[in-house]
Specification:
Chain A: It comes from Carya illinoinensis (Pecan). Chain A is α/β, with parallel strands linked by helices and about 375 residues long. Chain A is built from 11 helices and 9 strands. In chain A, strands 1-8-7-2-5-3-4 form a 7-stranded mixed beta sheet, with helices on both faces. In chain A, strands 6-9 form a two-stranded parallel ribbon. In chain B, helix 7 crosses helix 10. The chains are: A alpha/beta (about 375), B mainly alpha (about 180).
């Protein structure tokens, strides 16, 4: 399933928000020997059945969200005590000190942020500058609290209007890792609990756009907000995760075209986590964000690479969907991820009947064509 | 990682292997068990229709509803037996038997023109009219020596499909 074929999107695809899936699936009916239609051709449904059974046994979509924990290495009598010592150090020494660092960070941050936010109400430019700096600082504290070893490659993002940043998504910590380097504005799904509280207070200051996955009308409102934000000169650069959901950092799912039809430059960012100490994939089906953070804070380190890649613009004659796929290709190649032709939102909803109809249509056409042959 | 409470013992594996007529190796059965547990998210011991349909590749398949009827409430042993027709070790006869079962939805051992029409409708959807379907089916049935009132049994299917070299295999990923 390589993305080397030229993707052609017909106009009927535009409302589907994704390129033609048929290009990704080898359609076995095309290779059938031509010839007169016989009873056995109608009765032989083995290709369809094989596809169904293949999907039951293993499918590329579920693979994207499978947590692959690192191989256990504590399996013999010498390594096991070592591992036990490691556990003691991690839970009893590292974890408390990290909690202290984090608490310190919060104290420093809140004691600076609240005064700045309240007292400098009139001096917006200065206030914004200080708030940006403080948010970057707070994110650095967060990254330190899981001993994040992050290597940044490429030129740092610059503040310019008419540009958006897109990155692949593995966990909410992606945002924190990128934010410690540059104060981005972000578009996020509104979460409940303490995360939601954080979102509505502190992230508001760097500029945030909320959305609700389940609301269809939300899309237009969000699209409008995105366009407005990108045009504003004073706004922080916008960071978007076009996958729309957390993927396990081995694959990328299809990018939503929203970020690619704003008429501005798209700067891709690729993030790849090294699983040597911990798997940074946040499997939102299996754990809450708090559990996820605790897991990170009780491991040795979170190691990752961040690549800031060359900014891309829409080519002449390219549709936003093709543009999105092109950028996804750039990011996937840089981070060593495999591409799958699925929409991340299929985690929450069923595929549109259009895909089944396409299969039915191609079968019907081939059948009618063979009927003509004598 | 399997998230149901029971782990597979050697005895379980052998029992499953016997039930599916040794069409899968022990390693494949272990992989299938991991897959079964992965799909059976609520740990009920069987995979519900919802859980099957959460696999988008399965949900877009035209015969998925038909297969769901066959997959309904199967435990792991029966699940492996269901998939046994797709093993490379399965004989052509086993594969044809499976196809026959898909057609024979009421399980009475006979496939009438109506059953064939229904499967054809699943495969072609709204892109061919019911009339056209009946026309085509009647035509090929008569050319093969049957009438539109004939009932096909398993031996008929064997005769029709037997020497076409059925390609019906899936590979079970083994870690």
């Amino acid at each position: 399933m390589s993305g080397s074929e030229k993707l052609t999107s017909s106009s009927s695809e535009l409302d589907l928000d994704r390129p033609n899936i048929e290009d990704y699936f080898p359609s076995s009916s095309i290779q059938e020997p031509r010839g007169k239609l016989r009873l056995r051709d109608l009765l032989d449904i083995s290709p369809t059945l094989t596809e169904a059974a293949g999907a039951i046994v293993d499918d590329s979509f579920t693979r994207c969200f499978k947590s692959n924990p690192p191989e256990p290495w504590n399996w013999n009598v010498y390594l096991f005590p070592l591992w036990c010592c490691g556990v003691v150090v991690r839970y009893l020494i590292l974890f408390p000190s990290r909690v202290i660092v984090l608490t310190l960070g919060w104290i420093v941050f809140l004691s600076s942020f609240i005064p700045v936010h309240v007292l400098l109400k009139g001096h917006d430019k200065l206030r914004k500058k200080l708030e940006r700096y403080l948010v970057e600082l707070m994110c650095s504290f967060f990254v330190a609290s899981w001993t994040g070893v992050v290597k940044y490659h490429g030129p740092r993002p610059s503040r310019r209007p008419k540009q958006v940043f897109v990155a692949n998504h593995t966990s909410m910590i992606d945002f924190i890792i990128l934010e410690q380097m540059t104060a981005f504005a972000v578009i996020m799904q509104k979460h409940p609990g303490w995360v939601g509280l954080l979102q509505s207070t502190i992230l508001e200051s760097v500029g945030c756009i909320w959305f609700h996955r389940s609301e269809a009308k939300d899309r237009e409102i969000v699209a409008r907000k995105l366009r407005e934000h990108v045009r504003g000169i004073d706004n922080n650069p916008l960071l978007i995760f076009p996958e729309g959901t957390c993927v396990n950092n081995h694959y990328t799912v299809m990018f939503k075209k929203g970020a690619f039809e704003l008429g501005c430059t798209v700067c891709p960012i690729a993030i790849k986590y090294n699983k040597i100490f911990v798997d940074a994939f946040w499997n939102s089906r299996k754990q809450s964000f708090t559990t996820h953070l605790l897991q990170l804070m009780t491991s040795w380190a979170v190691v990752c690479d961040v690549w800031y890649l060359e900014p891309q613009t829409l080519k002449v004659g390219e549709t936003p969907i093709e543009f999105a796929e092109r950028v996804r290709d750039i990011i996937s190649v840089r981070a060593g991820l495999k591409k799958v032709p699925w929409d991340g939102y299929l985690k929450y909803s069923r595929p549109s009947p259009k895909h089944r109809e396409q299969k039915q249509q191609s079968f019907a056409e081939s059948m009618l064509q063979r009927l003509q042959e004598r | 990682m399997g998230n149901t409470s029971s782990m597979l013992t050697q005895y379980d594996i052998e029992e499953v292997q016997e039930h599916c007529n040794c069409t899968f190796s022990q390693q494949e059965i272990v992989s299938l068990y991991q897959r079964f547990c992965q799909l059976d998210r609520n740990g009920g011991g069987f995979i519900s229709a919802e859980e099957f349909l959460s696999v988008p590749e399965f949900a877009v398949n035209p015969v998925s509803q038909r297969l769901l009827r066959m997959l309904d409430g199967l435990n792991f042993k029966e699940f492996v037996a269901f998939l046994s027709a797709f093993s490379p070790r399965a004989t052509t006869q086993q594969k044809i038997e499976f196809i026959f079962k898909v057609y024979d939805s009421d399980g009475n051992g006979r496939v009438a023109m109506n059953d064939m029409l229904e499967v054809l409708r699943d495969l072609t959807g709204q892109f061919i009219s019911q009339q056209q379907r009946e026309q085509v089916l009647t035509q090929v049935l008569e050319e093969a020596g049957y009438t539109k009132d004939s009932f096909l049994v398993l031996s008929d299917f064997m005769k029709i499909l037997g020497n076409t070299g059925l390609k019906m295999e899936v590979e079970v990923p083994v870690d």
